[in-house]
Amino acid sequence: MAIPRLPIVLSVLFLVSISARSEYYSRTSRRVHLKPKVTHLRFFLFDILSGDKPTAVKVAHSNVTFGTSVIPFGTVYAIDDPLRAGPEYNSTLIGNARGMYMSASRGSDFCLVMYIDYAFTAGKFKGSSISVFSRNPVTEAKREVAVVGGRGKFRMARGFAKLKTHYLNVNNGDAIIEYDVTVFHY
Prior knowledge:
Low-confidence stretches: none
Distance between the termini: 66 Å
Largest sheet: 8 strands, antiparallel, barrel
Oligomer: single chain
Helix content: under 10%
Strand content: over 45%
């Protein structure tokens, strides 16, 4: 069976003429030198896995289990945790942490990989947030996670957060984590 060549030739010529006449539009602006700022934040994250209104819920888990951890290897949690000014449940609510974390350790060294956006809903940084995407070695006394971005007043943020477990219930996984954050932003 003969293939009609004329439609193919016309299609190729049409595509070539379109790409030859296309132009990429961009506008170059002068480089703006912004002065970097350093901000220190301290707040407490309440991660509640138990009860009638948990702030972290399991959304996926592995078919294979390793160990007897409260959060077995391969388990993924979605979170909407409150951020408070102090470690008491009745302390001032300053924001929320939304995202997910996953248990990423098969051994006894309990480790999470987390992507969380920490949004501030009150105070000086209302409407702003910082984003963390990092490994969190929970069993280490001193641990640090990376701040990889932000929005609002923390636009183009980078930095780190030092984490300290203020409270942990090993039976159900409920925890209060203290965050001491250093953010470099513009």
